[in-house]
Specification:
The chain has 473 residues and is an alpha/beta fold. Helices cover 50% and strands 10% of the residues. The chain has helices at 14-33, 38-59, 103-110, 117-127, 133-136, 146-154, 174-190, 200-206, 211-226, 240-243, 248-260, 263-270, 278-288, 297-300, 317-326, 368-378, 387-393, 401-409, 413-425, 430-453, 457-464; strands at residues 87-88, 93-94, 113-114, 140-144, 159-165, 194-198, 235-239, 307-313, 336-340, 344-345, 348-352. A hairpin with a 4-residue loop joins β1 and β2. Keywords: Aminoacyl-tRNA synthetase, ATP-binding, Ligase, Nucleotide-binding, Phosphoprotein, Protein biosynthesis.
């Protein structure tokens, strides 16, 4: 970001100011480390002090590295928020709006960047492939430093992908497929390594389950992930409970992150309290560590300067805001991110789904009959109260869950637009729209189930064995 003091700092949000101060602090450290001319260092320091003053004037808080402004950190344990503000953190998503979370506001509050048409077009030029429908439809809507990843790719410099899954239950639901479907596409069009973290340690710490059950869920979830079609020669899936004990590089990065994040900072970012177990407090460093290539020496031949790109839902961003703050202080590149919207519960877009509520979503284990019943019985409708009213006034696609699900899983853009126009005009009834969704989801889930049957324990072992992948570094 530009350092010119002539920019209008008043137009920046508190979180944008916070990131400006952070970036300028990194520049000052780099100039000093590089023994730059004194006048250049002095100018950078003056800019840093000016930014810190603007930050304090705007927020009423002194700048603290790694601790974003308190009124903007969305945490689990009750920070004050405006009445109409959405609550978004790694454990909760709440909104009073039937349309779901206001993602434009979330971009401003989190200080990320909108994925616009220019960026989508650039991805298409770089890969030579039509952009994934998740990009075309704004399902992946926000990013951090994707332009830097494209710069590297266009200059023949490597990067890698990192995503994950918290195995809280044996059966995954269709919402869990979203990051993996998109990550698979990214891996194919860019032809890069992929690491997938299974945070079974996290689930043991947060959930009422044994450590053995958490590990069992991780291996079962790995089968569903593998069934998405990942290439074993280019993909490493790992359980934290397994890998942490075998990789010195991984553990060293965890300790480095732990040293550079204070207890006050993790309380501010994640809402931890004095009553939380110390495992929770230290866990964010474990989720941060796969962002650094040195955590996987067997893949990257010990190289530490390979940038990471993380496709994930926006609720995971607090982990990586912390990671991005720490990265330059431990000599690592900042990870880049691509953020997705939340997949709505069948009952409506006000909350994200729960694996503990079988009726909140369609699970990958559901039969064709269960899928039909769930959609017909539980999918929130944007239709009118009577057929007559619906024919006259039309349905509301913005709140209709069946239409929302079709934006995720119906790949034909023309067909989706036809359905939208027909439903909005009243030509298509709610029951007819649900029928289209049923006919879309039943074969999709059946095909997934068939692929999963082919995933043996031996195949899981191959994916989860630390090893060199089909890339030279």
């Amino acid at each position: 970001m530009a350092d010119s003091p002539n920019c209008d700092l008043k137009s920046l949000s508190p979180l944008q100011l916070f990131e400006r101060v952070t970036e300028q602090g990194e520049k000052v450290r780099a100039l000093k480390a590089g023994k730059a001319p004194k006048d250049e260092i002095d100018a950078a320091v003056r800019m840093l002090l000016s930014l810190k003053l603007s930050y304090k004037t705007t927020t009423g808080q002194d700048y603290q590295a790694g601790l974003p402004p308190k009124d903007l950190v969305l945490i689990n344990n009750g920070t004050t928020k405006e009445e109409d503000e959405d609550l978004v953190d790694p454990w909760n998503v709440q909104t009073s709006n039937a349309k779901g979370v206001d993602y434009d506001k979330l971009i401003v509050r989190f200080g990320s960047s909108k994925i616009d048409t220019d960026l989508i077009n650039r991805i298409e030029r770089a890969t030579g492939q039509k952009p994934h429908h998740f990009l075309r439809r704004g399902i992946f809507f926000s990013h951090r430093d994707m332009d830097q990843v494209l710069d590297a790719y266009e200059n023949k410099k490597p990067f890698y992908l990192y995503t994950g899954r918290g195995p809280s239950s044996q059966a995954m639901h269709v919402g869990h497929l979203i990051p993996f479907m998109f990550t698979k596409w990214l891996q194919e069009v860019f032809d890069v390594p992929l690491v997938i973290q299974l945070t079974d340690d996290e689930k043991y710490l947060w959930k009422d389950m044994t450590i053995e059950k958490a590990y069992e869920y991780a291996r079962e979830n790995a089968k569903d992930i593998i069934a998405c079609g990942f290439d074993v020669n280019k993909t490493f899936i790992f359980s934290d409970l397994d890998y942490l004990g075998t990789s010195a590089g991984f553990y060293k990065n965890i300790v480095k992150v732990q040293k550079h994040v204070t207890f006050n900072q993790v309380k501010g970012i994640f809402g931890f309290t004095d009553s939380d177990c110390i495992g929770k407090i230290s866990f964010p460093a474990i989720q941060a560590a796969p962002s650094f290539s040195s955590s996987f020496p067997q893949i990257f031949n010990g190289k530490e300067n390979i940038q990471c790109l993380i496709p994930c839902a926006i609720d995971q961003d607090p982990y990586f805001r912390m990671t991005r703050d720490v990265a330059p202080r431990i000599g690592q590149p900042k990870p880049a991110l691509l953020h997705s919207v939340f997949f709505p519960a069948l009952q409506g877009a006000q909350t994200k789904m729960s694996a503990s509520d079988p009726n909140s979503s369609i699970f990958l284990t559901d039969t064709a009959k269960q899928i039909k019943t769930k959609i017909n019985k539980h999918a929130f409708s944007g239709g009118r109260d009577t057929i007559e009213e619906h024919r006259k006034y039309g349905g509301n696609c913005d709140v209709d869950v069946s239409f929302m699900y079709l934006t995720f899983f119906l790949e034909d853009d023309d067909r989706l637009e036809q359905l939208k126009q027909a439903y909005t005009s009243g030509e298509l009834l709610t029951g007819e729209l649900k029928k289209v969704l049923i006919e879309t989801m039943q074969p999709l889930i059946a095909a997934h189930q068939e692929r999963r049957k082919q995933v043996t324990d031996e195949i899981v072992k191959q994916f989860m064995t630390p090893r060199k992948l089909a890339f030279e570094f």
